[in-house]
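Ticket #4471: structure export looks truncated?
Reporter: QA, pipeline team
Priority: medium

Steps to reproduce: submit the single chain below to the structure queue and open the exported record.
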Amino acid sequence: MGKGDLKSKRGKISRGTFGASRPKKEANRRSHQEKLGINKK
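Actual output as written to the record:
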């Protein structure tokens, strides 16, 4: 587990991607969904 590991938090940080181990912040996700017009109930 390290910077090269695609499924670890450190690997996500080094690549600048997001996933199950490193989810995006809830507030950012909500505002993005509102811009796209996605209504989740």
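Status: closed, not a bug. The export was complete when the record was re-opened. Leaving a note from the reviewer for reference: Residues 32 and 38 are 9 Å apart (CA to CA).
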